[in-house]
Amino acid sequence: MPDRTRILLVDDDEDDFIITRDIIDDIPGRNYVLDWTGSFNEALDIIAERKHDIYLVDYRLGAHDGLELIKEALKHSYAAPFILLTGQSDRETDEKAMRAGAMDYLVKGTISPNELERSIRYSIEHAKSLAVIQRLNSELEQRVKERTQELGTAIKKLEQTNRSLYEAEQEVRKALQKEKELHELKSRFVTIASHEFRTPLSTVLSSVSLIAKYKTTEDDDKRMKHVDRIKSAVSNLTGILNDFLSISRIEEGKIYNVPTTFDLKAFAEQVADEAQGVLKLGQKINYRHQSSDTTAVLDKQLLKNILFNLLSNASKYSGEHKEVNFTTEIKDGTIKIKVQDQGIGIPEADKTHLFTPFFRAQNVTNIQGTGLGLNIVKRYVDIMGGEMDYQSELDEGTTFFVSLPQAQE
C-alpha cells in the first residue's frame, strides 16, 4: 500500500471536523489519514512533532485565529503546507492568507471532494518546490562560508610572504567585496524566484479548480478563458526560466558570437511581427529601416534576443493603445538600433542601477518581471562588441539605443 497523506485539521467546531472527514471519505481513491484538534496551543505542539504532510486551519479558533497559528508555526520553520479554511470568499481574506504563508484558502460549506483533493495535492507540490529553493539557498550560503574561510587562509599565507602588505590587503578586500556581492545576488535570486514562481502557479491552481466546475457546452467560453490564463501563466514561467538559464550560460562563458550575413530589414520585420504576440490591447509597433544598405554581418540569435527583449519591455511598461517606434540603420560599418516607447519611464534615482541583475525600478512593483532582461541585453551587446545607451523621462517614455559593429563572417 502506498504511503498515506497525513492531514491535521485545526478547528474548534467538532461538526466541521465531521463534515471535513466526510468530504475526505468521498475523495475517489483516497489515501488520507485525518487527525483533529480544536486547541490553538495543542495544534502548535502537534505541528512541532512534524508528523503531518499538510494542515487545514480554520480562520476562527476561539480567542485566536488561523492566521496567527500559521505565522507562529512558520516562525519555527515547520515546512509542511497550510490551507486556510474560511467562512467567506473575498480578496482581502485571500491576500491575508497568502501574506501569512498559507498555500491556499478554501471556503467552508462549498468545498467539494475534488476541490479539497486538488488543493491538498497542489499545496504539497508547491511546498516541495519552495523546499528546493530553500535548499539551494542553504547550499549557496555554505559555498559563501567555505569561500570566506578559504580567503581567511589566503590572508594568513599572504602575510607570511615578502609581498607588500598593502597590496595584499587590497586584493583580499576586493575578493571579500565580490563574495558580498555574490551573497546579495543569491538573496535577490531566492526572493524573486520564490515570488515570481508563486504568482503564475497560483493562477494555474485557481484556473484548474474553476475549469472543473464548467461541465456544459454553454460554459465553453468560461473554460477557454481559464485555459488562456493557464497558457499565459505557463508562458510567464517559461520566460522566467529562460532568463535564469541565459544568465547561467553567460556566467559559464557558453554564449558565443557567431556572425552570419543576412538582410537586416527583413530580419527586423520578422522579429517585430513575432513581438505582436506580447502586445497589449491596441498597442502597435512602428518599424522603419533608415538606410539603403540592408546587409548585416552579426550573430542572428543574439540580435534576435536583444530586439525581442527591448520590444517586449517597451510593451510591458507602456499602457494600452500606445505605440512603440522601432528603427534600424546601417551607417559607417555600424548597425544602429533604436526602440522608443510611450511608457512609465525610469525614476532618476534608479537609473544608475538599471542594468544590475535582479534590479527593478520603484515604479514597476505591480508589473511582473525578474529584473534580468536589461542585464541580459547589455551582456549580449558586450559579447557582440557593441554599446548600449538610453534616455528616459518619468511618465513620458524610454528610448534605448544599441550600436553594433559589423563583423566578419
UniProtKB/TrEMBL annotation:
Keywords: Coiled coil, Kinase, Phosphoprotein, Transferase, Two-component regulatory system
Residues with the 4-aspartylphosphate modification: D58
Coiled-coil stretches: 130-188
Presence of keyword Cell inner membrane: no
Top-level taxon of origin: Bacteria
Domain (Response regulatory) ranges: 6-123
Domain called Histidine kinase: residue spans: 192-408
SMART domains listed in its UniProt record: HATPase_c, HisKA, REC
Record has Coiled coil as a keyword: yes
Assigned EC number: 2.7.13.3
InterPro entries membership: CheY-like_superfamily (IPR011006), HATPase_C_sf (IPR036890), HATPase_dom (IPR003594), His_kinase_dom (IPR005467), HisK_dim/P_dom (IPR003661), HisK_dim/P_sf (IPR036097), Sensor_HK_Regulatory (IPR050736), Sig_transdc_His_kin-like_C (IPR004358)
Class of the enzyme per the UniProt entry, highest EC level: transferase
Reactions mediated catalytically: ATP + protein L-histidine = ADP + protein N-phospho-L-histidine
Record-linked PANTHER family: SENSOR HISTIDINE KINASE RCSC, TWO-COMPONENT HISTIDINE KINASE
Protein name: histidine kinase
